[in-house]
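May I ask for an example protein's residues together with how it folds?

___
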Amino acid sequence: MHNPSHPGEILKNLYLDGANLTVTQAAGALGISRKTLSQIINGRVGISAQMALLLAQAFPTTTPQLWLNLQQQYDLWQAQRKPVPVISPLWQPWPKTATARR
């Protein structure tokens, strides 16, 4: 997988710029502060479920799932770039036996 764009970057480049909307105009239409929208489009905060619902209403060619999937892909890629401690498995399936019960 490649380095996915932050969903805020996609929001700005494809949707706000594509509709010739300013951050102030878009924030007002979404019912959020300009600061909040600025934090999203600058990649400082992610897309929440509530924001995904708002964005899907504002841009009807999108869905809440699209916005949440974009955020999840971005978050997972970022997390995979950081060291993760090695832990022991908490559960293992029962070993297979030679004779299966029917």
Summary: The radius of gyration is 20 Å. The domain at 7-80 is CATH 1.10.260.40 (434 Repressor (Amino-terminal Domain)). The chain has a mean pLDDT of 94.
